[in-house]
Specification:
104 residues
Length: 104
């Protein structure tokens, strides 16, 4: 049982690491899109790209929540940290959705 939990935690940590590595380029692109949208409205190609990124981000957050459900049911610091990271990504997704809606 302990080995299962350790394996799940290792997989989850690996997933979070990969997600944050991928999000580095995504956040750079998002920052660039934010600057463009402030100067003028974004093109339909950029809007579609942003919609695609949002869909991927939502999917990753859902996977993170699913993985979190496999972590021990007690409120450990590790579980709390994972929940905080999920909440942070949700805020980021909401911000990008508002930005996308505002550019129309």
């Amino acid at each position: 049982m302990t080995n299962k939990i350790v394996l799940i935690l290792v997989l989850f940590c690996s997933f979070v690491f990969l997600a944050t590595t991928r999000s580095g380029s995504t956040s750079t692109e998002s920052s660039a899109l934010a600057g463009v949208s402030q100067q003028s409205s974004i093109t339909s190609e950029q809007a579609q790209s942003m919609k695609d990124e949002l869909a991927k981000m939502r999917s990753l957050v859902q996977q993170m929540e699913t993985n979190l459900s496999f972590v021990d049911t007690t409120q450990s610091p590790l579980k709390h940290q994972f929940q905080l990271e999920i909440d942070m990504w949700r805020v980021m997704i909401q911000r990008m959705e508002k930005q996308l809606q505002g550019s129309r």
